[in-house]
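Convert to structure. Protein one:
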Amino acid sequence: MDPTLHDKLARVTETLRGLGRVAVAYSGGVDSTLMLKLAHDALGDDAIAVTAVSPSVPLHEREAAAEVAALIGARVLWINTHEVEDERYAANPINRCYICKTHIFGELSAAARAEGFDVLLDGSNADDTGDFRPGRQAAAEQGARSLLEEAGVTKAEVRAAARGLGLPNWDLPSAPCLSSRIPYGTRVTLDTLEMIGRGEWALRERGFREVRVRHHGNVARIEVPVAEFDRLVAQRGEIVAELLAAGYTYVALDLVGLRSGSLNEGMGHGRGEAAGAAG
């Protein structure tokens, strides 16, 4: 491991040992997985995971998160969150992610405190300080600390550390919530989330590891990496049939290709992930 990264992780571990009992807001993504691994290695059973169960998170992601937590040996508290029931969230304003994270971190924090874990951690890293990230503000307001960010650990270093520690999801692509596929101002409903989830699962089942189904009413706009275009077109008939079965009338391939935060384009915030706002 790179000596600089080793020193950064040692700083995180030293901080953890001074915190007592901690709960990690754990999604199963590589960032929160690394944070959970470091916390469990440092504190054992005094570190747990708290994970949101929400219609905006596909079931397969929760199942994968459970498997990795079990590999680490960490206990997981599964918390049903209720952000989708909030009219402010359902209206899908530009600050939807802030509303969402306020709900989620508030509910995760309350559940952790009820179990005797007063410190809530998240997996934000040093690269998360740029772009349009209202969710980070909400997490901070709910008292969550970001030890990877505090130690200056970058995303590339997160992946390198996760790989070095044998975590199987070290190269897992980012997977913002399903609501991030819906243009701002278009209402978020359970039916819409189910359509998007079914569409993306159909593509993942066909081997497309990085994919977005952007929801534009009755139009599904598929984003995959440009290098995957030929393979997708070769399966065009089957993919169209599955997306029609999911509830769409029209199916389109975005010729620009997959890019994070494409629904932020034109907002003046660039193309980066918006902390789940437009993944």
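Protein two, convert as well:
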Amino acid sequence: MDLQKKATSPRKGGGYFISFEGGEGAGKSTQVNHLAEHLRQDGFDVVVTREPGGTAGAESIRHVLLAAGTQGYGPAMEAILFAAARTDHVDRLIAPALKAGKIVLCDRFIDSTRVYQGTTGEMLQGYIALLEKIAVDGTIPDLTFILDLPAKEGMTRANSRRKPADIIDRFEKAGISIQENRRQAFLKIARMEPGRCHVIDAARPVEIVAAEIAAISDKKIHEQNP
């Protein structure tokens, strides 16, 4: 398979979309960069992005979302802000990249909103689902890696990696019980959507995790474009 070298598309009508999900300290950003390097070495055109953010407009909303002062807005307002950022992100970056036949790797996407805002109550889940449908307009990841790590270990890792000048966002400040509830919510999504989601044991060494992710990605992309 020689997709980008032949200027063909990894999937019908567009590129290939991979998202990375998981709790704090699971190593999502690290694994995004490892996979990007692996795919580029194979000749693919890769776009690396993140949420909230990825475009100028979405990055502006990111600063609002992560600020401690917005905590009083509540999950419903948070979901609206995430949807606004995601709409701009999809319209201006992700969808055009996929249409151009590129592989997009995104550090967090729809599943993080489902978990961080959607675990507040069943009524809000329907509200978030509607916002999601509007924001993504059919642009759903082809493949999602959920990096799984016990919440306590994840926070220990996150704290050890943090530099003195780093600002701790309000989602990272949540207690261990809340972090563990989020972990279980991610695992529930994986059970509900096994075709898209792959749970990865993130407690292992970085290189071993990266090798597993690369192998799964290669297999999935090939299956879609034999």
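The helical segments are 28-41, 56-66, 75-99, 110-116, 122-136, 151-161, 176-192, 206-224. The domain at 14-224 is CATH 3.40.50.300 (Rossmann fold).
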